Amino acid sequence: MTTTMPKPERFASLDMFRGATIFLMIVVNTAGAGGAFTQLQHAPWFGFTLADLIFPTFLFAVGNAMSFALTRPMPEHVFLRRVSKRAALIFLLGVLMYWFPFVTHQADGSWVAKPFADTRLTGVLQRIALCYLLGSLCARYLRPSHLLWVAIGLVLAHWAILVRLSPAGEAFGRYRNAGTLFDLWLIGPAHLYTKDHGFDPEGLLGTLPATANVIAGYLTGLAIQRWGKHMATVGRLAAIGAGLVIVALLLSPVLPIGKKLWTGSFVALTVGIDLILLGVALWLVEVRGVRFGRSFLQMLGRNPLAIYLFSELLVVALELIHVRPDTGLYTWVGETVFQGFTTGPVGSLLCALAYTLICCAFGWALDRRGIILKV
Q1: β-bridge partners, 104
Q2: What pTM did the predictor assign?
Q3: What are phi and psi of 112, to 5 degrees?
């Protein structure tokens, strides 16, 4: 006689949560001409905006998905091969995305091959890959009760490295903190984010606290499956989330909230907000049965990686089409169409929303064909 493990119960709210995150990520990343609203721009250094919440929320959602995927029985060698292969693929896609379109446009109008020596090796997808790999290994080999201490340990290790190994007075600075110095030594300035003069917001050291966001999402997914679709679950999520937000605010005078450094207070704040938002989603979708937007957001949530890649590659391709000598097609559309309709941040937002809907149409086409690029 054989028995089969029951499939974990699906929660539509978790898929919708992931879908809403990727939608907002594209809106933030593709602001049109005219200047985006302050809340849709990242804080210059310390501080917090809505845009700063998007990436940690995506990592939190990655952890949520892991809580379902890793409950299925799987031999160790299969697990290790699958996780390492997926992490390597995501990392490689991130590198290729920054190398794309593999050619550069010269001042004389000619095209030459874009040297790999100038291609960024760090980035959003690369951080997702590393955090996914570390988070998966921790989830596989450690008990849930131990994972909380691992997450706290990662945050404390990040803080200790910054404070102990940075030059005096540079622990929370931009260019000479321990993380930046390590990136410059190991990777080199040519392979880092070039728009911030040597500082990379997705540097390697930040992988440690960012993995805590993945672990938090994983533990939350396990808890929701255990607690069920009830108001009590909503209340617990909201209470824990509010507690973490308070902790982050209390820590902020000595450990400033900052996405670019991914400080411990930033982890506490973003996880806290995500728990509250997820509690609201559970209440609306699982408890109240609200169906508005469900199919649309679930469709986005099933294929976030493919939709994100498409959004990044398409806007680069559009900018290669020069309407004027110094103006790409996407910028030109933002300036002439949307800024012509309404100027300033509203026009910029409308341009980003229109572009995001095009990316959603791509996701819908993939979904109709059953094509899923998993993360």
Answers
A1: 112
A2: 0.91
A3: -130, 155
